[in-house]
Design goal:
alpha/beta, TIM Barrel, eight-stranded parallel β-sheet, 40% helix, 17% strand, globular, binds NADP nicotinamide-adenine-dinucleotide phosphate
C-alpha cells in the first residue's frame, strides 16, 4: 500500500483555509497557539461510534472525503476505534488524494488495546504483566512505539500530526499517583523521541474524565504536573501541546469546574489552565455522543440568537462548542456526508460572543 510522506505544515494548512473564502468571516479557521502554528477548522471529524463493518467503513471514508472537500481539515481517530477500522477508513479518504497531506491535521490515540489483539501482544512481550490496567489499557513505551507504527500503517501515513495517550486516567485508578506519573514520564520520553524523529508533530492526552473531576478524585489528571513532566523531559521546546476532553452543552466542566492550578493556587478551569500552560484544547463528544438532539427550550432560545432560524439542535450545540474561548476545535462524529454538510452550516456563522455563552452556563 502506498504511504503518504510528510505532515501538516503552517503554510499548507493556511492555504487550505484560504481555499474556503466562504468561512473567512466566521472564525471557522483558527491558528493553533502552541507548538507549530497550524491552521485548523473549528470542527473536526471524529470516528469513534458505529459498527465494525464494511458499511460503516465506507460511510466514514465518504464522510471524511466530504469533510476534506468541504472545509474540515482536522481528522480524529484512535487505534482501538472499531477494531482499527476507523483508522483504515480515514486512510482511504486521505489516499483518495483530493487534499494534499500537508493541509490536513491527522490525530490518533494509543492506550486501549485494540479488539482481539491482547493475547497476541502479551505473547509477543509488547505488554508485560503489571503494565495492563483494567484489563484493556497499556502505556508502556515499547507498547506505544508498536502502536504508533501500527496506526501509521493503518492510515497509510509516514507521520501523524498529533498523537494522544488515550484516557490515561484508566491507569491512574489502579496505581499510586507517584507510580502513575512515573509511567506518564516514561511515555512522554518515548513520544518526545518519536517527535524528534519526525514520526509525530506533537502529542497530548485525550481524556474522558481526567480533566473534569475534582483534584481529589482517583482519576484526576493534573495538567500543570503533566506540562512540568514534558518540560523535564524535553525543556521549553517540548511537544506536549494538546489535550482532548469532552465538552458540550451537557458536559461543560472544562469551562465551569475550577480544578486545575498553574504553578500555585488559586484553582482555575481546565480551559484556563491549558491556555496559560501553552496547550491547545480540542473538544470531544461535541454532541454528547449524538444524544444532544432535543435541547431544552430555554437553551434553544438562547442559542438561536446566534444562528439562522432554521438551524437544527445539532447546529446550535456545535455553535456552543466552537464559540467557547480556549476551545480550538470541536470534534463531531460524522459517518454521514449529510451531517458534514449540516455541521458546516454552523461553521459558516460567526461564533457567539463569550459573555453570552457565560450567561447560558450560569443560568
Ligand atoms: N476519550 C476520548 O478520547 C474520546 C471520547 C469520546 C469521543 N472522542 C472523539 O470525539 C469524537 C466525537 O465524539 P463522538 O463521536 O463520541 O460523539 P458526538 O460527536 O458527540 O456525536 C456523534 C453522533 O452525532 C451524530 N451527528 C453528527 N452530526 C449530526 C447532525 N448534524 N445531526 C444529527 N446527528 C448528528 C453522528 O451521526 P453519524 O455518525 O451517523 O453521522 C453520531 O452518531 C469521536 O468520534 C472521537 O474522535 C474522544
Amino acid at each position: 500500500m502506498r504511504t503518504q510522506a510528510g505532515m501538516a505544515t503552517p503554510a499548507a494548512t493556511a492555504a487550505y483555509a484560504a481555499a474556503f473564502p466562504q468561512f473567512a468571516a466566521s472564525g471557522h479557521f483558527r491558528k493553533l497557539r502552541c507548538g507549530a502554528p497550524l491552521t485548523i477548522s473549528s470542527l473536526g471529524l471524529g470516528t469513534y461510534l458505529g459498527q465494525a463493518d464494511d458499511a460503516t467503513d465506507d460511510a466514514y471514508a465518504m464522510a471524511a472525503a466530504a469533510a476534506l472537500a468541504g472545509g474540515i481539515n482536522l481528522l480524529d481517530t484512535a487505534i482501538n476505534y472499531r477494531h482499527q477500522r476507523s483508522e483504515r477508513a480515514l486512510g482511504r479518504a486521505l489516499r483518495a488524494g483530493g487534499t494534499p497531506r500537508e493541509r490536513v491535521v491527522v490525530c490518533s490515540k494509543a492506550g486501549y488495546v485494540p479488539g482481539g489483539e491482547l493475547a497476541n501482544y502479551m505473547r509477543l512481550g509488547l505488554i508485560r504483566p503489571g503494565e495492563l490496567a483494567a484489563g484493556v489499557h497499556c502505556m508502556a513505551p515499547v507498547y506505544l512505539a508498536h502502536q504508533l507504527e501500527r496506526s501509521l500503517e493503518n492510515l497509510g501515513l509516514e507521520a501523524l500530526d498529533v498523537y494522544y495517550l488515550h484516557n490515561p486516567e484508566t491507569q491512574q485508578a489502579e496505581l499510586s499517583r507517584e507510580e502513575f506519573y512515573r509511567r506518564l514520564r516514561a511515555a512522554f520520553e518515548l513520544l518526545e523521541k518519536q517527535a524528534a524523529q519526525g514520526r509525530i508533530g506533537a502529542y497530548g492526552v485525550a481524556t474522558w474524565s481526567g480533566l473534569r473531576v475534582p483534584p481529589d478524585a482517583n482519576d484526576y489528571l493534573d495538567l500543570n504536573r503533566m506540562v512540568a513532566l514534558a518540560r523535564e523531559v524535553a525543556g521549553e521546546g517540548h511537544r506536549f501541546r494538546f489535550v482532548q476532553l469532552p465538552y458540550n452543552l451537557a458536559m461543560p466542566e472544562a469551562y465551569t469546574l475550577l480544578n486545575q492550578t498553574v504553578e500555585k493556587p488559586p484553582y482555575v478551569s481546565s480551559l484556563n489552565a491549558a491556555f496559560r500552560l501553552g496547550v491547545n484544547v480540542i473538544a470531544s463528544a461535541s454532541l454528547m455522543n449524538g444524544r444532544l438532539q432535543a435541547l431544552p427550550e430555554e437553551v434553544r432560545a438562547h442559542l438561536r440568537q446566534f444562528l439562522p432560524p432554521a438551524a437544527s439542535d445539532a447546529e446550535l450545540a456545535l455553535q456552543f462548542v466552537r464559540s467557547t474561548g480556549g476551545v480550538a476545535a470541536g470534534l463531531v462524529g460524522m459517518a454521514q456526508a449529510a451531517h458534514v454538510a449540516c455541521n458546516l452550516r454552523a461553521a459558516a456563522v460567526p461564533p457567539a460572543p463569550p459573555a453570552q455563552l457565560g450567561r447560558l452556563l450560569q443560568s
